[in-house]
Amino acid sequence: MHEALRPLSEVKPLRDPWFIAAFSGFTDQPGAANLAVKTLVQAWGATPFMDLDPERFYDFTVQRPRVRLERGERVLDWPENRVWIARPEGAPRDILLMTGVEPHLRWRTFTLAIEDMLRGAGCTTSVTLGAQGSPVPHTRPLPVNLSASHPDFETAFGLKAPQSRYQGQTGIVGVLNLHLRAQGWKNASLWGMSPHYINTGPNPHVALAQIALLDRALGTSTDLADLREQAGRFDEQVAE
Q1: Tens of pLDDT along 84-112?
Q2: How far is it, in rounded angstroms, from Cα 161 to Cα 156?
Q3: Which of 62, 86, 175, 178 is the most exposed place for a label (fewest CB within 10 A)?
Q4: 43, 36 contact by CB (below 8 A)
Q5: Per-position b or e across 164-175, b if 16+ CB within 10 A of its CB
Q6: Residues in Cβ contact with 94 at an 8 Å cutoff, skipping those fewer than 6 apart
Q7: Between the CA of residue 94 and those of 2, 7, 26, 71, 108, what are the distances in Å?
Q8: Exposed, middle or buried: residue 93 (CB in 10 Å: 0-12, 13-18, 19+)?
Q9: Confidence check: pLDDT of 30 > 90
Q10: Facing residues of 189 across strands?
Q11: Helix/strand/coil for 209
């Protein structure tokens, strides 16, 4: 096992698993994709599986730890990259869910650690989630774009995956996806488009749209009552 990994439960091959991940930062503005994965962690009753040690991947003068009170005692929260195992009702497979923070340092080491974890779990299919500010209005359903290594994903998500012609800077999602594709594994990205003029926090409508597509692909029916309530409060803030 890679030295950056910290097991939180027994590591063993899973049932035809998918890996679903989001990383705050360049590829998740302002946090809607992480909100989608965190919602799935709660709704699917996921259990902790693995952590990545933050010490080697972050400049703590840029991404500072936070202090909070817990039962009267001060507790430090470091930048966290955590993986959970979920077995959602209706899905024919197990799911590894990861929420994290785009690393500042050692991206290749970070990517190799994730690859090692996936190999140990018998996982060769991944879906990354991202969100980006776009010229779309908040008064209409928000679009989600698909990028995929295999046409099976177009059928699973009901979306076309046009050939990308983008050249330029990329985030950890791009680095991770290209690395896993080089292993011959299947992967896809679901990019939620969020109105660029709204910066009040994660847009729940992006998370709702991404989870609806994951439900379609996995055959699940996720309870999203809490997220819809959050979306209602978000809309009230925008209206104000």
Answers
A1: 999 999 999 999 999 999 999 999 999 99
A2: 12
A3: 62
A4: no
A5: eeeeeeebbbbb
A6: 14, 15, 16, 17, 18, 85, 86, 87
A7: 22, 18, 28, 35, 27
A8: middle
A9: no
A10: 128, 147
A11: helix
In Å, what is the CA distance from 75 to each residue of 50, 66, 106?
A: 21, 8, 27
Q: Evaluate if residue 164 carries a pLDDT over 90.
A: no
Q: pLDDT class for 25, splitting at 50, 70, 90?
A: confident
DSSP state of 163: P
Report which DSSP code applies to 50: E
What is the sign of the dihedral through the CA atoms of 77, 82, 87 and 90? positive
54 φ, ψ to 5°?
Answer: -75, -20
**68, two tokens:** 């909070």
* Preceding amide of 54 cis, omega within 30: no
Q: Which two tokens stand for residue 171?
A: 């985030």
Structure tokens at 192: 């939620």
Q: Is the peptide bond before 151 cis (omega within 30 degrees of 0)?
A: no
**Under a CB-based contact definition with an 8 Å cutoff, are residues 128 and 36 in contact?**
no
Joined together, the tokens standing for residue 207 give 């998370």
DSSP H stretches of helix in the chain = 32-43, 107-121, 152-157, 172-182, 204-218, 225-239
Which tokens go with 167? 């050249």
Query: Residue 183 and residue 166: Cα distance in Å, rounded?
Result: 22
Q: Which residues contact 102 (CB under 8 A, 6 or more apart)?
A: 23, 24, 25, 26, 27, 28, 171, 172
Encode burial over 187-202: b for 16+ CB neighbours within 10 A, e otherwise.
bbbbbbbbbeeeeeeb
